[in-house]
Amino acid sequence: MSNDETKFGPFPLSRRGFLKVGGSGLALTAFAGTVAAPTVLRAQTPTVKVGILEPLTGNLAYNGTQARAGAMFAIEAINAAGGIKSLGGAKLEAVVADAQSRPDVAAAAVDTLAQAGVSAFIGCQASALGLASSQAAARYNLAQVFDVGTAEQVVERGLKNVFRFTPGVNKCTSTALENLKLLNQNAKNVVKTVAIVYEDGPFGSNMSKLLNERLPQIGMTVVENIGHPTPQRDFTNIVLRIKAAKPDLIIPSNYLNEYTLLAMTLRQQKVEAKAIYSILGGAASNIKFVREHNDAAQYVMDCNHWYDPRKPESQALAKKTADAKLDLTYDIMVAYACIQLIADSLERAASPDREKLIEALASSTYAGSIMPYGPTKFVNGNNEAAQPVNTQIRGEKIELVFPKEYATAEAVFPMPPRG
Amino acid sequence: MWSLVLPAILGGLTTGAIYALVALGLTLIYGVLHIINFAHGSLLMLALYGVYFLYAILGIDPYLALLIVVPVFFVLGYVLQRGVISVFSLGKEQNVLLVTLALAIIIDNLALYFWTSDTRTISLPYAYTMVEIGPAFIPLPRVIAFVAALVAAVILWLIMSRTRLGKAIRAVAIEKRGAELVGIDVDHTYAMCFGIGTACVAAAACLLLPTFYVTPQVGYAFVLVAFTTVVLGGMGSFMGALVSGLLLGVIEALCGLFLGESLGQIGIFLAFILILLFRPSGLFGRRAA
Amino acid sequence: MKTTSFGEWVLYGGICAYLLTLLVMPSQLWLGFTINALIVAILSVAWNLLGGFGGQMSFGHAALFGTGAYVTAMLQVRWGINPWLAAVAAIVAATAVAGFIAALSFRYGLRGSYFALVTLAFAEVLRILASSFEISGGGQGILVPYKAGLANFQFADRSTTYALVLFLVVVAMLITLAVQRSRFGAYLIAIRENEEAAKALGIDTFRTKVLAMMLSGAIGGAAGVAYLQTYLFIDAPIAFGSTMSIEALLGPIIGGAGTVWGPLVGTLIIHGLGETAKHLVSGAPGLNLVLYGVVLMVILRYLPDGIVGLARRIGPRRAAPTAMPEDR
């Protein structure tokens, strides 16, 4: 069950190098200086260090661990393909730091990364962590490529070291609503009323605000708008309110645990909606949920980060993930793609220098990542080419149903009545 | 909204039953050992994993798992108190609290290391069997948990009032020195208490998992409510824990309904503060001296 | 007055040397870590006044810390009030919250674990309130725009932040020292040792405890201000969550409750321990915290009076001449 940590790339090696010196009792002081030395001496080719700052413990541990795995897969793949060619085939070396799901720890971890000599880093799965870490990284002129950080504040601070490769909440919501509008038109506008269930943290409350503004614009009325804390132990009340409001569509915006409970309770209370359509939902693009609650999961749609499943590299990643006995979640995909972006920029910068890497990232037009994005275009650190896609759970699988050019299946909307 | 009140109350009662089950173990530990057991939530989490793996690997039904998990956790609790908590705390009350805190950190993170932070659930066919009670549909596992909470409270009450062990526990709770003088083995009694308390939390886990999930952090969702339940009911009172657990379930459900789920959580804590201020001995506790 | 033992000289000297070295020769790696630890140390000093000297163990010092952070953040972001003024207002607010909690709890005679739990509940209430209303940023928390400058109470150079936080720690410790040497401090200790006896001696125990909590609130509020101005972000789980409350009490208890140096010593050691553990088992997240928990238990078992207590026992009289070369 437990994933074997030692498999993950070269980092534990450099740590061993540290341990030898660490015995001196001045472990911490020695750390900064020695972590690089043994590796450089040993290595045949030069290495470029890339930081992975994720919440590996605390309440975001699941996402963080997944993202770390994705980043490690990318580094493996890039090194296997010959490393960074413009740097004489330099290999990428991961420096992992744990943000512990706490902003202050995330900020302090940036120091460790900077001292270890990383050229850039990816992180941190949650906006609150990313906000703190990128601010700390700005002092070092150290680029942070955001894997997930949907809050728009991330790119509104004018920090030059911030590169959000994936779409933010505004983009996700507008795409999700455009797609929803199209789906509904195709289905002769069967959906007229909507119930929103959101977690009251930054992600959910932001989403609910946007949805309440924009749903009426596509001809849908919000009949219930229910916030709940994380963790929420019981969903009976919420589901009863939904049941009483009889919405055509339910939009949940919460994390995996709460989503699972919500889905179970919806089924228990026999709530029939024409569709369940989540935006950046935790569970609807999580294969584990599909496996464990297959009945409840059928036809649930999500608008989320997802890779382009037709690319050979995507398929290789899917296989690697399965071999490592991990579930393929979007966390893995986006972290993989962010490392790809950094590798491409390093290639063009032809230097591990932080400053040059920031320039290379800012001028990036990279289109070769596993994500279904066009040529990268950063405006104030926001990748304007990023877009979410629609997935739908069908049988045992998560299929990509929208946009058409990446689709692996046709969307079913509204969902067929349950028997 | 008003049509939802009765279903909300019924739903709250079943949630409250789980609170009561978790709190029954805590109230015993709290009432007798006078310690705030921070590891209680972690032990609940551990038991949930036990139930989960028994089902996922051996296919043992959670209710059947009661027969395995409860005795195992009784022993675990006994050993923890006798071999770890009392040893490391040197018997000082403020240290006990910190030792249990350290234990919680250790247990939670070992779970994270070995089982990762994946959310795990089990899908039982009868999890979706509904019982119709008046205007409400209640899932069968919730009804079972409700009945089980009542049974557990009665069993504990019988142990405390009818057995030798119960007498010893009460004696130690009231006057530790005196009990020692009349020949009661205090260390053994403490450990028995901790064992029974831990067994209760294991029973709660068996009854909870069919409608819930388990992650290494799941204990936090219950531990504060469990403390509230214990204080509201009066430390060491099983009937108090039962009634206040149910009451808190209802308070939470109604506050959630009328104030929204986010702000609604405040109901529990306000009730807690008010009880502490005006009746610190709890609803069923002996008047504090 | 007790004389300072040799062990204490070494311990305090080492800490001062470390902190001063960092002031003169800043290392970015160590600054981040130390700033973090010192902010918690301020809160620990606050906890120690009431918990260490007065024996009233609070489990909800996050309520004071969070009030400090939130009030500063809200005043400057929502109403554009100067951050320095906001900081003063925040400290006043935290003092008021502390006074309110204390007056209510002590008025009804809560002590021991009852007091611990009621403070915990107050922190929870504040957490829920902070995440439920628009004015406090709801679930999103409050982000203070980054505009470095003395007028904005933000510093581009972290050495300055460090100096400021260090200054606050020193002030907080001086306050502790003043309390320890005052009549008020003696009252507090009397209450800790035996409240009934203290009352019988004519000490106004209620007043003493409430005042101690208010002083604690002012210092705890300052910790919140320092946190906010350092990280420029606050949300309800950070501000009022139990993590902060627990950190507040771990430092003094590990370091030595009821001593001037205890909170600082304990916090630095705990944070150093956490950091070391993180590097030792960095491939396996979670295991570092396991190690942390184990060491915590060992300290509780073998150092009942905390680190300061240990240092006190390492004195010139007990030390073997060979073991202590500097021994006179």
The topology string of helices and strands of chain C comes to: HHHHHEHHHHEHHHHH
Largest sheet of chain C: 2 strands, antiparallel
Beginning-to-end CA distance, first to last residue of chain C: 21 Å
Task: Give the CA-based shape of chain B.
Answer: globular
Low-confidence stretches of chain C: 317-328
Helical fraction of chain B equals over 70%
Percentage of β-strand residues of chain C: under 5%
Helical residues, percent of chain C: over 70%
Biggest sheet strand order of chain B reads 1-2
Main sheet specs of chain B:
2 strands, antiparallel
Number of strands of chain B: 2
Average pLDDT, all residues of chain C: 87
Mean pLDDT of chain B: 87
Number of helices of chain B: 12
Low-confidence stretches of chain B: none
Q: What string, H for helix and E for strand, traces the elements of chain B in order? A: HHHHEEHHHHHHHH
**C-alpha termini separation of chain B:** 45 Å
Categorize the overall geometry of chain C: globular
Describe the structure.
The complex is a heterotrimer of chains A (419), B (289) and C (328). Chain A has 419 residues and is α/β, with parallel strands linked by helices. Chain A folds into 2 domains: 5-166 and 311-383, 3-Layer(aba) Sandwich (Rossmann fold); 170-304 and 389-406, 3-Layer(aba) Sandwich (Rossmann fold), CATH 3.40.50.2300. In chain A, 42% of the residues lie in helices and 17% in strands. In chain A, the strands form 3 sheets. Chain A has a 7-stranded mixed sheet with strand order 7-6-8-9-10-13-14, with helices on both faces. The longest helix of chain A is centred in the N-terminal third of the chain and has 20 residues, at 61-80. Chain A starts with 10 loop residues before the first helix and ends in a 17-residue tail after the last strand. Mean pLDDT of chain A is 84; it is low at 1-43. Chain B is mainly alpha-helical. Chain B has a domain at 24-217. In chain B, a hairpin with a 2-residue loop joins strand 1 (130-133) and strand 2 (136-139). In chain B, helix 1 (5-33) runs parallel beside helix 5 (140-162), helix 1 (5-33) packs antiparallel against helix 8 (186-208) and helix 3 (62-89) runs antiparallel to helix 8 (186-208). Chain B is globular and about 60 Å long. Chain C has 328 residues and is an all-alpha fold. Chain C has a domain at 27-246. Helices cover 73% and strands 1% of the residues of chain C. Chain C has helices spanning 6-24, 28-53, 62-78, 83-107, 112-132, 158-181, 183-193, 195-200, 205-231, 236-240, 242-255, 262-280, 287-302, 306-313; strands at 142-143, 233-234. In chain C, strands 1-2 form a two-stranded antiparallel ribbon. Chain C is globular. At the A-C interface, helix 1, helix 2, helix 5, helix 6 and helix 8 of A face helix 2, helix 5 and helix 12 of C.
